[in-house]
Amino acid sequence: MDRQQILELYHWTSGTCFRHPGQGEVSTAHVKTIRPAAGGIQDIRACTECVVGMEEQRKAAAEGAGLPYRPGIPPGE
Ligand SMILES: [Zn+2]
User: Fold this and answer.
1) Burial of 46 (0-12, 13-18, 19+ CB in 10 A)
2) Residue 25 contacts residue 15 (beta carbons within 8 Å)
3) What is the Å distance from ligand 1's center to 47 Cα?
4) What are the residue ranges spanned by the domains of the chain?
5) pLDDT, tens digit, for every residue of 29-54?
6) Which residues surround ligand 1, an ion (CB under 5 A)?
């Protein structure tokens, strides 16, 4: 699976990457929703570089655990 195929699994809109806030508005995908203890909901968005990096880590973790690798956002996240 190449980079473009992975990116096509995500829905891209303009936003701020959680790891690169200094970049300002870039093309980002929603990767996680967290519920802070203080209440409310916070959406975590990542830029293309971060999404590809996260998928590479997920692939390595799946292979290390002997599990099948499925790119994209797991159900429920
Ligand atoms: Zn980023």
Assistant:
1) buried
2) yes
3) 4
4) 3-65
5) 999 999 999 999 999 999 999 999 99
6) 17, 19-20, 47, 50
